[in-house]
């Protein structure tokens, strides 16, 4: 399978330099990441919302190594929210955030001396509290302009922290969403809990390299898990967000929604910017809520490589472009 190989390349400095230097790379990257700054992205936001689409915005950049970088990530989202307020587009555009950007993976400043010689260890190691402190102002600002934030899922070792932060934020901002990944064994139980709590939940297949001890490895197993989990969400009390470009899964989602008696505004589809744009418009024209996951920023490499890993067609597109344009 090429996916794990590509994901390994996403963590390689040598591959980053090689791919970044390729003449065709910017042209191909622009297909998925249509800008580096807020000013770049405003015309995209206007264009998509004018077409009846909604958006979720991701400021790319996950390789956070300092508290200052985590603060800068927070401020980048606050800048975006300020622009959305000026544009009066808050209700049409939400935010997607990765807690790693907000410092979740940083070492904890708490020491044994801080806790006392026999004091309890913190419930979560690393930068859990820092990530919560940084993301809360973003969630507050988003709520003030009539929109919300969804916490993206990352690798399985981060999820207990992510769900704890999600639960904490929902005490004051119950519209805060989260992402679950169908390929993880734990996700069916997570889905039952979240569906019962009335949360907003985006279901995706999963794009991180996970060991066989925690995740399905075969596509057909992941697809079957996706359908089981989606049924749980559709029959529950929450708001399902179907994150998929798979025509078969989209059809199944529509049928599950119908059987569950859901109206068109009681769930939504989400797809990536640059992939199946005609399908975005088709679903919106049929009256579905269709949200386009749109990323921007300068630190695009990790995001771009995961898009290649997720879908073989993306990789073929990139390789063909390198051959014909490089």
TrEMBL record:
Coiled coil: none annotated. It comes from Streptomyces aurantiogriseus. It catalyses: L-proline + a quinone = (S)-1-pyrroline-5-carboxylate + a quinol + H(+). Signal peptide: none annotated. This is proline dehydrogenase. Its cofactor is FAD. Binds 1 FAD per subunit. One of its GO terms (molecular function) is nucleotide binding. Keywords: FAD, Flavoprotein, Nucleotide-binding, Oxidoreductase, Proline metabolism. The lineage of its organism: Bacteria, Bacillati, Actinomycetota, Actinomycetes, Kitasatosporales.
């Amino acid at each position: 399978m090429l996916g794990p190989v590509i994901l390994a390349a996403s963590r390689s400095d040598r591959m980053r330099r090689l791919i970044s230097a390729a003449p065709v790379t910017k042209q191909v990257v622009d297909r998925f990441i249509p800008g580096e700054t807020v000013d770049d992205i405003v015309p995209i936001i206007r264009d998509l919302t004018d077409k009846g689409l909604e958006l979720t915005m991701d400021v790319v950049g996950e390789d956070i190594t300092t508290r200052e970088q985590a603060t800068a990530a927070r401020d980048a989202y606050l800048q975006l929210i300020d622009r959305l307020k000026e544009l009066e587009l808050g209700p049409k555009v939400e935010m997607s955030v990765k807690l790693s950007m907000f410092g979740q993976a940083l070492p904890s400043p708490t020491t044994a001396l801080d806790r006392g010689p026999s004091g309890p260890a913190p419930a979560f190691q690393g930068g859990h509290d820092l990530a919560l402190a940084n993301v809360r102002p973003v969630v507050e600002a988003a709520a003030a302009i009539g929109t919300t934030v969804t916490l993206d899922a990352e690798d399985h070792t981060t999820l207990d922290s992510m769900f704890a932060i999600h639960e904490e934020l929902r005490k004051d901002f119950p519209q805060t969403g989260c992402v679950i990944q169908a390929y993880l064994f734990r996700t069916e139980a997570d889905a039952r809990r979240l569906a019962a709590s009335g949360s907003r939940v985006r279901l995706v297949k999963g794009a991180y390299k996970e060991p066989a001890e925690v995740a399905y490895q075969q596509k057909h197993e992941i697809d079957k898990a996706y359908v089981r989990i989606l049924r749980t969400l559709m029959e529950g009390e929450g708001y399902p967000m179907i994150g998929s470009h798979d025509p078969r899964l989209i059809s199944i989602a529509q049928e599950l929604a119908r059987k569950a008696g859901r109206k068109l505004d009681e769930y939504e589809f989400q797809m990536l910017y640059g992939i199946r744009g005609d399908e975005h418009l088709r679903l919106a024209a049929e009256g579905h809520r269709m949200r386009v996951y749109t990323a921007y920023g300068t630190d695009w490499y990790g995001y771009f490589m995961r898009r290649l890993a997720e879908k073989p067609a993306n990789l073929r597109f990139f390789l063909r472009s390198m051959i014909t344009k490089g």
